[in-house]
Amino acid sequence: MHDLATDVIRVHDLRMSYGPVEVLKGVDFTVRRGEVIVLLGPNGAGKTTTIEILEGFRMRSGGQVTVLGVDPARGDEAWRARLGVVLQSWRDHGRWKVGELLAHLRAFYTPYRTPFDLDELLAAVGLAEHAGRRLSKLSGGERRRLDVAIGIVGRPELLFLDEPTAGFDPHARRDFHDLLHRLSDLEETTILMTTHDLDEAEKLADRILILDEGGIVADGSPDALARKVARDAQVRWSVDGEHFVHATDDVTAFVRGLFAQHGDAVQDLEIRRATLEDTYMAMVLKEVRR
User: Fold this and answer.
1) In the CATH hierarchy, which fold is given to the domain comprising 33-56+75-219?
2) H-helix segments, the chain
3) Any idea what DSSP says for residue 96?
4) Lowest model confidence (mean pLDDT) among 64-68, 75-79, 145-149, 273-277
5) 76 — phi, psi (to 5°)?
6) Using one digit for the tens of pLDDT, what is the confidence trace for 175-225?
7) Do 238 and 244 touch, CB atoms closer than 8 A?
8) How many angstroms separate the Cα of 60 from the Cα of each of 114, 137, 194, 251?
9) For residues 255 and 237, what is the distance between their CA atoms, to the nearest angstrom?
10) Upper half-sphere CA count for residue 77 (Cβ side, 13 Å)
11) Are 47 and 211 contacting, i.e. CB atoms less than 8 angstroms apart?
């Protein structure tokens, strides 16, 4: 049972058709306050359609949806001010300066809530040194940081992210992950994101939703989903230069017994579980075979 007071998103029997093509065939899930949820699925599975319905940008064909206690189809400006959206791309005029654009957008939120302080926001997304630069002069990675800043300027309760780190270099990606952890942990921001980067999903997600064939085919933490696919973990070690491999569903007991038998002679100990990529491929392929 979920506590209705902590459910930021509630989706029941969500359906969406484009003409004769049924894209969503009865999607059900909930998102609790402060969770980081990653929505995965193959191209064409309906991820973007689902997100756009939740954002209020697309009308659904059927089902019940509430976001922050409101049906997105009826959301007003005060409701929209509680949301943040980072799109895959965002068009604007290249002559805007970074600080001026964010200050302009920030002003739209002030009648409804307390947005981020501009200097704090610029520092959070790594653009403090670029406040006076024109958008046309930003690199691809800097431009993407600005997209994120635009999405969170209103200090949203719920943040939607569509492929947020596309084009980020490793350093920018790490900074972005730190920012998301800060928003979730300190601001209690609820985050729903899509990504094709399964390593990123595994690092960030409290819970993974896999959307395929019109419905949610998996829902759980990365570790819990991995255990559904492969309960056994693989233990690798060496003793006196000889290497061993053993599969077990109780790693703790096996490793304890290993050291009881060999003590400090155990070297190169490594434990491998199914990765999120293993899990994702197994679950999506299972749906294809049905």
Assistant:
1) Rossmann fold (3.40.50)
2) 47-55, 77-80, 98-109, 118-124, 140-152, 170-185, 198-204, 222-229, 251-262, 276-289
3) S
4) 273-277
5) -100, -175
6) 888 888 888 888 889 999 998 888 888 889 999 999 998 999 999 998 888
7) yes
8) 31, 39, 19, 46
9) 10
10) 6
11) yes
If you average pLDDT over every residue of the chain, what do you get?
88
Structure tokens at 16: 């969406």
State the burial class of residue 177 (Cβ atoms within 10 Å of its Cβ: 0-12, 13-18, 19+).
Answer: middle
Rounded CA separation 140/88 (Å): 12
> H-helix or E-strand containing 268?
strand 266-272
The gap between the terminal CA atoms of the chain, to the nearest Å, is 30
In the chain, domain spans: 33-56+75-219, 226-289
Residue 193 and residue 225 in contact, taking contact as beta carbons nearer than 8 Å: no
Q: Which two tokens stand for residue 84?
A: 């943040």
The reported pTM is 0.80
